[in-house]
Structure of 4-hydroxy-4-methyl-2-oxoglutarate aldolase:
Amino acid sequence: MLDILPDLFDQHAQQLQWLPIQWCDFGGVPTFYGEVQTVRCFEDNSRVKEVLAMPGRGRVLLVDGGGSLNRALLGDLIAQSAQDCGWAGVVILGAVRDVHALKGMSLGIKALGACPIKTQRKGIGELDCVLHIEGVAVNSGDYVYADRHGIAISSTAFHIDSEGAIKEW
Ligand SMILES: O=C([O-])CC(=O)C(=O)O
């Protein structure tokens, strides 16, 4: 799929909130969208690993890692698990590693940057919490729309067909 955000904003700007962050694109799928599940954690990816081993059903995991580039919250093994479990994408306000392998995955992956060091898992982190990213509140059950421009959040589910036609669900 090509770009989706310009047409989405042209047609439905009132229902969208833009996250003004220039993300790095690490996955093999630059355009992806789906229902959000939220995680908040800091330099501990326990929750990320647990959740991405559960059925994704086309959803997108949005992780507020506090912006830390000191530890990677996702690497090739967890990303493979996400792909195998049917997640559409993972968005990390923080870092990832195993960058070469991530590019080969059928998964959307956006993050602030890369770091070669993994976290120490101590079981710390929250699932399904309200995240505040660039002044935008995001809950599990909202929707993420991502392409090479970046990421928009909405409480509305849109379906975008392979021709780029947008339908509200
Ligand atoms: O295990 C981790 O914490 C991150 C990682 O390297 C992987 O997902 O392969």
In short: The mean pLDDT is 97. The longest helix spans residues 76-84.
